[in-house]
Write a structure and sequence with these properties.
Order of helices and strands: HHHH
Shape: elongated
Number of domains: 1
Number of helices: 4
Oligomer: single chain
Helix content: 55-70%
Structural class: mainly alpha
Length: 67
């Protein structure tokens, strides 16, 4: 459990991860679109979220080095 917590802590302080983006707002938008059953818009928003998030996440090798 502490290894997983350390990985998330590392993500939270990753340089550039939070610059110019509002993660909470993105998550709220995803929730709103999904619960409103606006599937096409929710899918597009989720794709955009993944595409903007994936480049700053650590690789599997980096995660193993942390944990």
């Amino acid at each position: 459990m502490s290894s997983a917590a350390e990985v998330y802590r590392q993500w939270a302080v990753e340089p550039g991860l939070q610059e110019g983006c509002d993660v909470a707002a993105e998550h709220r938008q995803l929730m709103t679109l999904t619960t409103a059953r606006r599937a096409n818009e929710a899918t597009a928003a989720l794709r955009a979220h993944f595409e903007s998030t994936a480049p700053v996440l650590p690789t599997n090798a980096e995660c193993r080095a942390i944990g």
